[in-house]
Design brief:
Blueprint (H helix, E strand, L loop, with lengths): L2 E2 L10 E5 L6 E5 L13 H11 L2 E6 L2 E3 L11 E3 L4 E4 L24 H10 L3 E7 L1 H4 L5 H17 L6 E5 L22 H10 L7 E4 L2 H10 L3 E3 L5 H8 L6
Parallel strand pairs: 7-8, 7-10, 8-9, 10-11
Antiparallel strand pairs: 1-2, 2-3, 3-4, 4-5, 5-6
Helix pairs in contact: 2-7
Subcellular location: Cytoplasm
Protein name: D,D-heptose 1,7-bisphosphate phosphatase
GO molecular function: metal ion binding; phosphatase activity
């Protein structure tokens, strides 16, 4: 189901946000367009069709862009760049406990209160990205297929709990890799900024309002090399930083 991010009894704003099932798209909806009955049971497609048909749709937000109905567009190009800020996250030690080269579900353990923190960042409108060195592939501890299978499960679990990961990047290379095809120096391997810059080039976030959270000095240096600030996680968890830096509004 689509999720309303404002409630009539608590939020006085005239424009509400409606997020799609996969959290990658927003509708900005005039408050008077919300039907009083059955709203929570509508699917994303039903919401969109209803609002378009009623002429009540203000905007559609797609990854990195805003869509305006043709009558509201200021030019022939109905898409406008939406520069949302981004949260870049290291994985091991931030998303999950770092047990060293984690490549399977059996060794993947979520950090404390992680789901709530990611749900909060998602609801605030941040892009959320993961950038992770994965030299366990180069060391033959697990394969790229293993990693992709694990990350599909990780992202699905996060979305089930109301958060999202918009995109992610990994670097399997290491200059001393035991597998020859992965033995090289890569500008994607942190502290190099390649993964961050590649995501920034695709999604066009507002880097001036973005931040990286990581538990290693290489994470922090990658952020500096990308021109964004960084916060060192540990022993405090990501959730504790989100609670202190992005407090929930009083109701």
């Amino acid at each position: 189901m689509a999720r309303l991010l404002s409630e009539a009894s608590k939020k006085p704003e005239q424009t509400w946000q409606l997020r799609s099932e996969d959290s990658n798209c927003l509708l900005l909806v005039n408050r008077d367009a919300i039907p009083q009955a059955g709203a929570s049971s509508l699917t994303w497609q039903e919401w969109k069709e209803y609002l378009l048909g009623a002429g009540k749709l203000s905007q559609i937000s797609l990854p990195g862009k805003l869509w305006f109905p043709p009558q509201q567009s200021e030019s022939n190009d109905s898409f406008k760049q939406l520069e949302r800020p981004a949260i870049f996250l290291d994985r091991d030690g931030v998303i999950n406990e770092d047990h060293g080269w984690v490549g399977t579900r059996e060794r993947f353990h979520w950090t404390s209160n992680l789901f709530g923190a990611l749900r909060r960042l998602t609801d605030l409108g941040y892009h959320v990205f993961i950038v992770t060195n994965q030299s366990g592939i180069a060391r033959a501890f697990y394969t790229e297929t293993d990693l992709h299978d694990l990350m599909t499960w990780v992202i699905d679990e996060i979305r089930k709990h109301g958060g999202t990961i918009d995109d992610w990047r990994f670097c399997p290379f290491h200059p001393n890799a035991s597998i020859e095809q992965y033995r090289k120096t890569s500008n994607w391997r942190k502290p190099a900024p390649g993964m961050i810059l590649d995501l920034a080039g695709k999604w066009k976030p507002d880097l001036s309002r973005s931040v990286l959270y990581g538990d290693q000095e290489t994470d922090l240096q990658a952020a500096i090399n990308s021109g964004i600030p960084a916060v060192k996680v540990g022993p405090e968890t990501l959730a504790s930083f989100v609670d202190s830096s992005f407090p929930k509004p009083s109701v």
